[in-house]
Give the backbone structure.
Amino acid sequence: MRAMYLANYFVAGCIAFSLLGWIASLHPYAFRAVLCLLVAIAIAWGLSWLLDFSLSKLLKISVADLQAFLISGLAMLLIGLGVFLCS
Amino acid sequence: MQLKLFVLSGAALALWLIPLTALDKRIGWHKSVQGLSLCTAIACAVAAGDIARELSEQEEIEAIKTRAITADVVDEIATSAYVSQAQRQKEAETILSDQPERDEIIESLERALALKYSEPSEPEAEPLNQPQDNASPEDEERFTSLKLTKNQAIEVIQKLRSELNQTQTIEKLWECKKGGSEAWKRAYAQFKNLTEEK
């Protein structure tokens, strides 16, 4: 059942990135805004990898959990945007 | 609850994939439907995730309960086994400690009697229970399996009676078992004779 709830949250993340793509397709300004948001997310993602030990202490989770979360976040972004762009 | 979980999960996937693939992005109302279905799909997926997490926590609690009950049962069995073993050991120690004490008392009494009647200060230091030449016929009568004289037998009986009951005293001194045998009847008669005379 633990795998089930993780899978559901993963799907929710994928749909959220698809929604971001949909918002970006509404207007050029929205596209730029979403692009800025994605850049910010990318910077935060890279910084999280660099500061993973201190961040894990701050969030009170293990480093392995934090790394798994970052990898699954990247996978959600790729799958969500990929589904939206390929449809 | 599980049915709801599966329905919500399936709905989330369907609302995510079907509008994106089936509807045209260039048509206005299609695009609106796509946005709505994506929002609904997120809501469905999050709700399904919450339900699944709740069920997962309940399963963990049940597993903890099962482990606790199993540990209690194992502990109870181990305790009862330990108690019964300790009780058996105590009983065995009691039996082993009682038997030598009685034997020691009897042996010490017999030794004391033997020393008393074989002191060197006595005029005739003969071995214990040897018939005397100048003894009267009444004194020559011997009692118990140790062939004690009347006085010796009375003294031993008096000392043993503080530790043993009548039957045990007769069994120990005359070396016969209680019952209807001739030896028992004779021993009992002698015992009564000695105890009434003292």
About this structure: The mean pLDDT of chain B is 82. Helices of chain B lie at 2-22, 28-116, 137-140, 150-161, 166-174, 182-197.
